[in-house]
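Hello again,

I reread your note about wanting to compare the complex against the isolated chains. To keep things tidy I'm splitting this into two emails, and this first one only covers the full assembly. Below are the input lines as submitted, including protein chains and any nucleic acid or small-molecule components. They are followed by the predicted structure of everything together. The single-chain runs will come separately.
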Amino acid sequence: MKKFMNDPEHFVDEMIEGILAAHPDKLAYAADDLRCIIKAGNKKKGKVGIATGGGSGHLPLFLGYVGEGLLDGCAVGGVFQSPSADQMLEVTKAIDSGAGVLYIYGNYGGDIMNFDMAAEMAEMEDIKVQQVVAGEDVASAPKGEEGKRRGVAGIFFVYKIAGAMADALASLEEVKRVAQKACAHVRTMGVALTPCIVPEVGRPSFTIGDNEMEIGMGIHGEPGIHRGPLLKSDEIIDQIMKRILEDLPYKKGDEVSVLVNGLGATPKEELYILYRKVQQILKKEGISVYNTYIGEFATSMEMAGASVSLLKLDDELKRLLSSQASSPFFAQFQL
Amino acid sequence: MERLNIEDIRSIVRNLKIKMDAKRDYLIELDSAMGDGDLGITMSKAFTAAKDEAERSAEILPGKLLIKLGMAMAKAAPSTMGTLMATGYMRGGKAIGDIESLGTGELAGFMDAFVNGILERGKSKPGNKTIIDTLYPAAQSLLQAQRNNKSLKEGIAEAYTAANRGMEESNQMKAQHGRAAYYQDSSIGKQDAGATVGLLFIEVLYEYCR
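Full-complex prediction:
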């Protein structure tokens, strides 16, 4: 293992200390706990607060989307571990301005249990809380069992859409509605080329052979749907796009936004080679592309690999996607 | 003893802390065989926090106090079992409402809500080799005692018998949840640490009321 760190035990806290030191005007923390990240500055009166949370090891996910026109707070867990319900509650209390709080997070057992618990405790403190659980990885469960799917990079779209809606001072029910709509319209599938290493473990917890790839592997190394020899990038995208397109399904005449996400160790050059083929397939299928996001949005430590996400747009989603937003990790002008 | 008042609740919580501390290494040993071995530490932390909160809080209604104990446990022991236990207290406390003391019926209501809270939060059911397999029979037994107009002392004694029977049965079950689920068939015959915690919980109640 080769990592820049001091003590593995302090990996997450020292990462947060660095982030806060770099962006003191944008981020702060609540309840005297570094793991309770909130937006710096005053709360906007009447605005629904949006909180997320999850394990570390996925930057810019999750705390990287705390920012203007995005999220208001994030509970930060250890590497690949859920934050605690109490940390989620502290974030909730810090970001509520009276209009209620929406939790948006990925479909993982530990996170669900703790967010459920936090919501119950928040209710006892008279804070209205609603939840939207994102799960769009088509490789993680078959069609018909969408509720079992893991949340991966496509959650970025859900954050962006909900963040824009909350910024326009929509009600908690309205923000929840568009977040759910974004979830229903997004699909993702990924491919891994190398494993990742949890700092406190110190070695890969699984292996992928030198000339192998695993299609559909999760962002914590959860088993995918096919392990085999590394194919040419166009062939990989053919397989991934087939599964994504037929799942929703995305059809001729649809308009989509595309996210090609790097898992941590894959250079942007390769992500663009992947996108080249994604665009060719969409063109052939008669599906138009509104906006393309290429880079790292949800990583898995130093894993080499990538995922492709499509968000099917309608007028409302397009309007919400296009608004400006900024955080230390993501910024976009009005499209 | 016919009913448990707020001071009884405080004493029971103190006894629970003493029991969990005494069984800490035993629970660690049981949990190490099938889990990650931290259950003894988690329970000791959770019940210490509950005891501290019970002593600090000036609450005079049992239901309100029990909810506060749950919140304190959630903060102090943010692991799966800590969160489940905290959920049990919060739901149980809510179920009691504003009454000033607990008889057989109220205790049955508390335990029933306690168990249902854990089932819902943990997305589990009886028979999966968890804490539920000792607490569920105990709660059912208390509900039965309520229907039969049994005294608190009798009701708890029967619940303790039911929890012990549940413990024995759970030893033969196959683990379905958490890390223990990886052991599947080899978990059969082993004693589950979570079910043991459930039994200890009922044991403290029994020892206090007998």
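For quick reference: The two ends of chain A are 42 Å apart (CA to CA).

B.
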